[in-house]
Design brief:
An 8-stranded antiparallel sheet has the order 9-5-6-7-11-3-2-13, with no helix packed on it. Strand 6 and strand 7 form a beta hairpin. 6% of the residues lie in helices and 41% in strands. The protein is globular and about 45 Å long. The chain is mainly beta. The longest helix has 6 residues. The chain contains 2 helices and 14 strands, in the order E-E-H-E-E-E-E-E-E-E-E-H-E-E-E-E.
């Protein structure tokens, strides 16, 4: 299940990082802004701490540590991608705190990313969080603005 459910069965996904949530269309990468992989938000992070946006199971961690996938307890496939073009760093600037198969709760620590290091390499730290199996949700709503990792909802949906 998402973070919590209300009487109207609306479920929420929280920010994976503190900073500013922006529309996925504003992410400076055509794969994300064009919603090729799914829909969601981008976070302009103010902190390198990356928390789980949902409760679920870690399904994948990229060997370059720049992205991970989580299957939420209610069946959503969530991609957390840390920065833009950060695959080029081959894991430098990232510390992973979880492993594939591990169950996490919304707000649990997943990763750390060194924002200064990534920016020093000329790369964007904007980090998309997207739902890749959009057919599993109805009424997806995206929220933008100032966010706190593990607390502020950035998406709501119904199953």
């Amino acid at each position: 299940m998402g973070l919590f459910s209300r009487k109207d069965n609306t479920l929420k996904i929280v920010a994976q990082q503190s900073g500013k949530a922006i529309s996925i269309e504003e992410v400076p990468d055509p794969v994300f802004s064009g919603k090729v992989l799914g829909d969601g938000v981008g976070i302009v992070p103010s902190s390198g701490e990356v928390l789980s946006p949902v409760s679920g199971t870690v399904a994948q961690v990229a060997h370059t540590m720049h992205a991970l996938g989580i299957e939420s307890d209610d069946g959503l496939e969530i991609l957390v991608h840390l920065g833009i073009d950060t695959v080029k760093l081959n894991g430098e600037g990232f510390t992973c705190h979880v492993e594939v198969g591990q169950h996490v709760n919304a707000g649990d620590k997943l990763m750390d990313m060194d924002l200064d290091f990534i920016q020093s390499k000329g790369l964007s730290t904007i980090s998309p969080c997207i739902i890749t199996n959009l057919d599993a949700v109805k009424n997806l709503e995206i929220f933008a603005g100032s966010v706190t990792a593990g607390e502020t909802p950035v998406m709501s949906y119904k199953k």
